[in-house]
Amino acid sequence: MISFQSKLPKTGTNIFSVMSALAQQADAINLSQGFPDFECSPELVSLVNQAMQQGHNQYAPMTGLLSLREAIAAKTQELYGASYHPDNEITVTAGGTQAIFTAICATIHPNDEVIIFEPAYDCYAPAIQLMGGVVKRMELEPPDYRINWTMVRRLISSHTKMVILNSPHNPTATVLQEEDIRELISLTHKTDILILSDEVYEHIIFDGQPHRSMARYPELAERSLIVASFGKLFHITGWKVGYCMAPAWLMNEFRKIHQFNVFSVNTPMQYALADFLQVKEAYLGLADFYQQKRDYFRSGLESSRFELLPCAGAYFQSVKFNHISEDNDLLFAKTLIDRVGVAAVPNSAFYSKKTDFGILRFCFAKKQETLTKAVEQLLKV
Ligand SMILES: Cc1ncc(COP(=O)(O)O)c(C=O)c1O
């Protein structure tokens, strides 16, 4: 018998895979995993095709294709008034996940403390732990999931190295407000604390609210690694292309790791994305596109027994069910698949202590017909 010590002994299969597998077995409508069930732009597909035909099939530069980094820099300048130099402040990554892992790997030393807010996307904590870092968790509570900055100050110590933020937020669909930004500026002022800002849903933000990217605020941008994902932007989650932006000194460290964990990202996709970014409507229209889906889904569920939580961004609608059933949220989510044929994610999965507020998360990045069918079924609860 080979003796072996797991590096992540408590980690199992993630909840998205579990719920998706159950949905598949039961032939249920899958609103659990966060990906669109509709096609991306055919133009984008033909641009990839063209790039392949033109022979762009070998390694891309380690930092990403220059034309793509230039397009990202131009978009960031135009939207957030921030200047990131394509040469040394932007790197193309294999999706947001790799950018997050690389950012943590490049900055966190053993015993460094990292503050995260739960419910949290599942890849932050394991990456911190793998680097020997210490996860300092703060639980946020429904219905508004606002950050209590006084409590955050209490978590800060001389070992605090980083704060991880995610806006628009998965799973709660909240977005950072101006007062959060003010607090963050005052909290980090004259400290060495870094910010890892997961902004993969930057363009999916509703009701005319601005996206408060760290890039907009020089005091925060100077200490931030900002992560973005083309998967979310152009309905291509399976392509796994994203990017990271940071000040040159920090990006230099990021690239030291990036070159050894992926080296470079698939070339034809980068050619296509560089061209497609010139079509501004493709990303500027995303908020309206998803707002219609949000409104359609919410209005369908209005007469249901679920209580709808606010949804200000990203493509998730949370619902409260604990007045309907006393089951825990995992059990209720499984029953929902069996009884009405709709799969959701139980929100306790986003808390390390499995804190259960009786809430499920539905993904509404789906075709109208999928949403119609899901609503029909959910009204039977
Ligand atoms: C909050 C958040 N961050 C990061 C990611 C990962 O993005 P990518 O699919 O580009 O790796 C996701 C994907 O669902 C997400 O929801």
TrEMBL record:
The keyword rRNA-binding does not apply. It comes from Mucilaginibacter arboris. CDD domains: AAT_like (cd00609). Its cofactor is pyridoxal 5'-phosphate. GO terms for molecular function: kynurenine-oxoglutarate transaminase activity; pyridoxal phosphate binding. Pfam families: Aminotran_1_2. NCBIfam families: PRK09082.1, PRK12414.1. Keywords: Aminotransferase, Pyridoxal phosphate, Transferase. Belongs to the class-I pyridoxal-phosphate-dependent aminotransferase family. Gene3D superfamilies: Aspartate Aminotransferase, domain 1, Type I PLP-dependent aspartate aminotransferase-like (Major domain). This is Aminotransferase class I/II-fold pyridoxal phosphate-dependent enzyme. Residues 27-378 form the Aminotransferase class I/classII large domain. One of its GO terms (cellular component) is cytoplasm. The lineage of its organism: Bacteria, Pseudomonadati, Bacteroidota, Sphingobacteriia, Sphingobacteriales. InterPro entries: Aminotransferase_I/II_large, Kynurenine-oxoglutarate_AT, PyrdxlP-dep_Trfase, PyrdxlP-dep_Trfase_major, PyrdxlP-dep_Trfase_small.
